[in-house]
Amino acid sequence: MTTYDVHAHCVPPGLFDQLRRGSSRYGAEVVERDGLVSIQFAGGPTTPAIRDDLVNIEHRIATMDAGRVDVQLISSWIDLTGYGLPSGAAVRYTRMFNEALAATVALHPDRLLGLCTVPLQDPPAAAAELRRSVTEAGFVGAEIATTIDGVDLDDPGLNPFWGAAAELGCPILIHPYLPLAGRDMSRYLLENLVGRASESTIAVAHLVFGGVLERFPGLALILVHGGGFVPWQAARWDRGYEAAPSKTAVNLTRKPTESLSNVYFDTVLHDPQVVGFLVDWAGADRVVLGSDFPFPMGDLTPVDTLDAVRSLSGSDRSAILHGNVERLVAGIRR
Predict the structure, then answer these.
(1) Would you say 169 and 327 are in contact if contact means Cβ atoms under 8 Å apart?
(2) Full residue range of the structural domain in which residue 268 is found
């Protein structure tokens, strides 16, 4: 049995050299200060320092072995999506990043699968890059952020991308970025502890109430951090659909929770009892293993966490560890 981790971030080892050679072409440059490396996009803010364990592939493999993870679905560190770049630079940057990520997968093709990044500020180009990445470069899906430089995911302009994803049948992992813009969450690590889960909840709510999941029923989405607050509050969405249809049902023909049937939730919840609730609520066929590698807020021993969920049957455990991911990958139309 192969164990899959769907939520694992990576900075391709070749990225820095590519940017040093062509920063003007890609609209991004490497910034080195006090022995730390960051990326600056188009004169905008500089990313936080890039952790070595995002880049170090052998450390990644050793951590996977220690955590009993056989295969990671690796995706970009979300800070490197580059959604603020102009379209032309974004297309070039994204293609370069994906080629570097594909080269990373090729170092350990039995241990790594790739989720590409796409230039969502240009949705037709994003659709084209998704198709190329999945049909030609061997990627098994994409990672996107919860907003596109401030644009919500139900924006009609994104329809070309959603259409391509539904046509391909490949999973799209949605990851929070710049959570709850405008709120001061600088104290107590609230940006991470509360903001990220809130951001994911708002993003999928836009997809549900905006009718995106009804218009594109072939979409397969993966929500990280257990889906934020969705499992706990989804019944409230249905109540709103019934109690205030003039505001909630304008894009819908069915209850909001019925649009969640092809949404998957990772296990990064840090409590076996809560993971058990998620499985009871969503069904074992919609829960997938995640670690959020390599960050301290992640769960680098996710199999241990799953083993501690007392209510799981053997078939449930198998579905979460491997069956659901294998079904998703097998369903991709290349």
Answers:
(1) no
(2) 4-330
Paired strand residues for 324: none
Determine the length of the chain: 334
Provide the pLDDT for residue 20: 92
- The CB density around residue 70, as the number of other CB atoms within 10 Å, is 16
E-strand ranges in 12-109 read 28-33, 36-41, 71-76
Residue 253 has what DSSP assignment?
Answer: S
| Residue ranges of the chain with per-residue pLDDT less than 70 | none
Vertex 14: Cα angle to 29 and 125 (nearest 5): 70
pLDDT number for residue 46: 82
For residue 47, what is the DSSP state?
Answer: P
Q: What is the pLDDT of residue 183?
A: 85
Alpha-carbon distances of 6 from 140, 169, 224, 261, rounded to whole Å: 11, 16, 9, 19
Structure confidence at residue 184 (pLDDT): 87
CA atoms within 13 A on the CB side of 293: 35
> How far is residue 87 CA from its own chain's centroid?
22
Q: Using only the alpha carbons of the chain, give its radius of gyration.
A: 19
The H-or-E segment that residue 299 falls in is none
Tell me how many domains the chain contains. 1
List Cβ neighbours of 45 (8 Å cut-off, separation of 6 or more).
none
Look up the CATH number of the domain holding residue 59. 3.20.20.140
